[in-house]
Amino acid sequence: AAQAAVALRQAQLYSEVLELEKLKSEMIRMASHDLRNPLNNIMGYVELMAMSIDAIGMTPDQEQYVDNLRRSSQAMRQLLEDLLTLERIESERQSEWQLFDLSGLVLEVVEAQQSSADLKRQTLIFTRLLDTPPVRGSVTQLRQAIANLVGNAVKYTPEEGRIEVTCEFNNNQLKFAVRDNGYGISPERQVRIFERFYRAREPGTDHIGGTGLGLSLVKTVIERHGGQVWFNSETGIGSVFGFWLPPAE
Question: How many CB atoms lie within 10 A of CB 122?
Fold first, then answer.
């Protein structure tokens, strides 16, 4: 009887957890939808003001206020998008996953990031091994995770820096890595690097925007695919971020 009572209580708790998760997802969707429209209106007016600075005759201080408002609204929009992305990741069913070539997906992401690297006169190199086995998973989720890692390397590497992306098969695991010679991360900040909303602010990076959700999203995606994230970083030297994924069975 005692065991039956415990089992019943566990079933009730599990049901409550599922309901809370469902409620959380619904609240995120509703909040994001309700905030997106007014935010888009605000951003539209801010852009009009920015384009009319000369015609209006703004003072330098007023121009700075407009620029700050534009940056803040862009950051808010990115936060909403990241929250929605996390919600979609956590609710997607594995039955929707498919077999695909990870190295091909990495190539797509690198090509998409090339223009951003070019703007900073960075060298972006991808070393691709063609005989890597396929993985089973969500193309959308893994594309987002890879884009976050490569995008971070571009953002946190100064102009004329170097970024190396690799994808290989080693020890029966698929290994992805992106190495840069950017600002690096101090040891005291490394322990929190995958926390949601945490940003490792190092000297020289105050001008770089972000929501603090990018690496948390990467960790969530990779672990949902049975993999593991890893990184090494040294202040003033650079960082290497990557993950291991099991091949499809």
Answer: 23
- Give Rg (Cα) of the chain: 21
Using DSSP's 3-state secondary structure scheme, residue 162 falls into: strand
- The mean per-residue pLDDT over the stretch 126-150 comes to 90
Q: At what angle do helices 139-155 and 102-119 cross, to 10 degrees?
A: 30
Give the C-alpha separation, 117 to 68, whole Å.
Answer: 25
Confidence of residue 178 (pLDDT cuts 50, 70, 90): very high
Using alpha carbons, select from 101, 120, 99 the residue that is nearest to residue 109: 101
Average pLDDT rounded to a whole number, residues 233-240: 90
Structure-block tokens of residue 209 = 């925007």
Q: What is the dihedral of CA 163, 165, 170, 173, to 10 degrees?
A: 120
Domains of the chain and CATH, by start = 2-91 (1.10.287), 95-245 (3.30.565.10)
Q: Is 3 left (phi over 0), alpha (psi -120 to 50) or beta?
A: alpha
**Amino acid found at 120:** K
Structure tokens at 187: 């040891």
Higher pLDDT, 1 or 126: 126
Q: Residues 69, 113: contact at Cβ < 8 Å?
A: no
The pTM of the whole model exceeds 0.85: no
